[in-house]
Amino acid sequence: MSTPPAPSSPPSGAPAPAVDLDRYRTLRRRGTAIARSFRLAEADVEDVVQDALVRMLRVPTDGDGAPRRYESYFDSTVRHLCIDLLRKRGRETELPEPDEMPGQSRSERHEQRILVRQVLAAMPASARSILVKSHIEGRSLSEISGELGISSNACSAMLYRARRAFRDRYVRSHVLPTDDERCAAVRALMVDTALSTSSEHEVVVRNHRRSCEDCESQYAFLLTARSAAASALAPGALAALTAGGFLAFLGIGGVVATARRRVGSSRVRPRWRPSRSWPSPPRSP
Ligand SMILES: [Zn+2]
């Protein structure tokens, strides 16, 4: 029986976790495909994938600590290591443009759909409701404010807060567990720094990231999540990501479901106006 080379051992002191060989092989394949898309030399591809696999060994995977986004985290880590390697070699010019960066894999897109639904389902009802009306049913601010009996200014502020809450919850769900208390404390502050350039925790988080490669990977993962959350909030995206019965499940899809029944077609699209601009942040009182 041939056994693939197992990743090198975890840091001294930590008990060696049992390696699930199936998962190990799957991750190795995924990582190799991603690293090759950066056009690295085969030896570098192997190094990068090995490094990412070793980092995965340090993510607790049992019980409550099991990361729900294990594979996405691995993909993000491989990409991050590839970018890092090209930078270290002074080959920045070979980095793909942001919009040409090896994109989401199929399983990441699937993951995003599931996550968007989970985040929406867990939001407070009023915040979810205004996101659904605006982003999924495609209603205008004046329609929504009329329905809610509030000023369009108040409606705009409400939508702004709901979008921010969505983004925050989406990114926060990408914080992986760690057995290290110091890392856990820093990760608790990391969402804030990933979402805001003026976060008061910026220095603490940056200093820790410099000396902790696991938290550096974690931070790269949060930045990936931030982009995914932003793309989910782009015009039309939330409607596409939640298409297929999700709203009925939540019991909040009355309008869309009724419209579909009325015309006897499942292909009714929410009324979407791509040219609309998003409301600006409310002025401070
Ligand atoms: Zn750390």
Automatic annotation (TrEMBL):
<dbReference type="Pfam" id="PF04542">
    <property type="entry name" value="Sigma70_r2"/>
</dbReference>
<dbReference type="InterPro" id="IPR014284">
    <property type="entry name" value="RNA_pol_sigma-70_dom"/>
</dbReference>
<feature type="region of interest" description="Disordered">
    <location>
        <begin position="266"/>
        <end position="285"/>
    </location>
</feature>
<feature type="region of interest" description="Disordered">
    <location>
        <begin position="1"/>
        <end position="21"/>
    </location>
</feature>
<feature type="transmembrane region" description="Helical">
    <location>
        <begin position="236"/>
        <end position="259"/>
    </location>
</feature>
<keyword id="KW-0238">DNA-binding</keyword>
<keyword id="KW-0804">Transcription</keyword>
<dbReference type="GO" id="GO:0006352">
    <property type="term" value="P:DNA-templated transcription initiation"/>
</dbReference>
<dbReference type="Pfam" id="PF08281">
    <property type="entry name" value="Sigma70_r4_2"/>
</dbReference>
<keyword id="KW-0805">Transcription regulation</keyword>
<dbReference type="InterPro" id="IPR013249">
    <property type="entry name" value="RNA_pol_sigma70_r4_t2"/>
</dbReference>
<dbReference type="InterPro" id="IPR007627">
    <property type="entry name" value="RNA_pol_sigma70_r2"/>
</dbReference>
<dbReference type="InterPro" id="IPR039425">
    <property type="entry name" value="RNA_pol_sigma-70-like"/>
</dbReference>
<feature type="domain" description="RNA polymerase sigma factor 70 region 4 type 2">
    <location>
        <begin position="115"/>
        <end position="165"/>
    </location>
</feature>
<dbReference type="InterPro" id="IPR036388">
    <property type="entry name" value="WH-like_DNA-bd_sf"/>
</dbReference>
<keyword id="KW-0472">Membrane</keyword>
<comment type="similarity">
    <text>Belongs to the sigma-70 factor family. ECF subfamily.</text>
</comment>
<keyword id="KW-1133">Transmembrane helix</keyword>
<feature type="domain" description="RNA polymerase sigma-70 region 2">
    <location>
        <begin position="24"/>
        <end position="91"/>
    </location>
</feature>
<feature type="compositionally biased region" description="Pro residues">
    <location>
        <begin position="1"/>
        <end position="14"/>
    </location>
</feature>
<dbReference type="GO" id="GO:0016987">
    <property type="term" value="F:sigma factor activity"/>
</dbReference>
<keyword id="KW-0731">Sigma factor</keyword>
<dbReference type="InterPro" id="IPR013324">
    <property type="entry name" value="RNA_pol_sigma_r3/r4-like"/>
</dbReference>
<dbReference type="InterPro" id="IPR013325">
    <property type="entry name" value="RNA_pol_sigma_r2"/>
</dbReference>
<keyword id="KW-0812">Transmembrane</keyword>
<protein>
    <recommendedName>
        <fullName>Sigma-70 family RNA polymerase sigma factor</fullName>
    </recommendedName>
</protein>
<dbReference type="GO" id="GO:0003677">
    <property type="term" value="F:DNA binding"/>
</dbReference>
